[in-house]
Amino acid sequence: MRSILIICGCLILSMAGMAQGPISKVDIDQIPASYRTLETLTMASTSSTYRINYSKLMNDLDPMSSQALRFSFPIDHDQMAEFLLEEDSPMHPKLQAKFPEIRTFSGKSLDELSTLSITYSPYGVHASLRNAEGLKYFVPVTEGDPNFGILFNRSDYTGLGESPFYCGNDELPLEEWESPISHLGLQNESLKAGEPISLRKYRMAVACVSEFTTFKGG
């Protein structure tokens, strides 16, 4: 009887180990000492640090899978949730083939209360999580090490360094707009005379948050 109990206990522990996800919460003193003074750890008023089993994460998020992938991810500082994810690469197939080590997946939690978009690469794991509590971000503690990450609410973000983020454009004097090419050093007699100007077409990729897209009617 004792032998049976021991065997059952071993099986339970083994199954628990197999169910362990690749991302687990750790105290800050469990990350490398050289990381503990990084600005990343103080860029939010409240945050949590995580250890990532990167090889298991890549195995769990297999891009060759033909089915939705079940993946465990933190939805709060003390809570994990199960998600069903599918590959959702923003790259052109040829570009994706050139960089197979960079993968993006997205999906919903099993209770459909949270959505997740996650990208992994040798530089780290980046993710954005949205639910009723708002938007959360998961970023590497330091770029280049995919084994540690930090989770924080966007509302708790305080910034990196002393300079606040600035997004905008500087106004130009009216006289510069009257001669829009003068500041480029391109104004010459041929342009003044109305000579044909060569035009080129470019392809441009723009990334923005969903709120901006919605505001613009997208």
How would you characterize this protein structure?
It is built from six helices and nine strands, in the order αββαββαβββββααα. The chain is an alpha+beta fold. The protein has two domains: 17-156, no CATH class; 174-215, no CATH class. Strands 1-2-9-8-7-6-5-4-3 form a nine-stranded antiparallel sheet, covered by helices on one side. Residues 4-18 have low confidence and may be disordered.
Q: What can be said about this structure in brief?
A:
The chain has 218 residues and is an alpha+beta fold. The chain has 2 domains: 17-156, no CATH class; 174-215, no CATH class.
Going across the biggest sheet, name each strand in turn.
1-2-9-8-7-6-5-4-3
The global form is globular
Helix and strand string, N-terminal first? HEEHEEHEEEEEHHH
SS-based class: alpha+beta
The residue ranges in which pLDDT falls below 50 over 5 or more consecutive positions are 4-18
Number of contiguous helices: 6
Give the overall pLDDT as a whole number.
Answer: 81
Report on the biggest sheet: 9 strands, antiparallel
Strand content: 25-35%
What separation lies between the terminal Cα atoms? 66 Å
For the record, the count of structural domains works out to 2
Q: What portion of residues is helical?
A: 10-25%
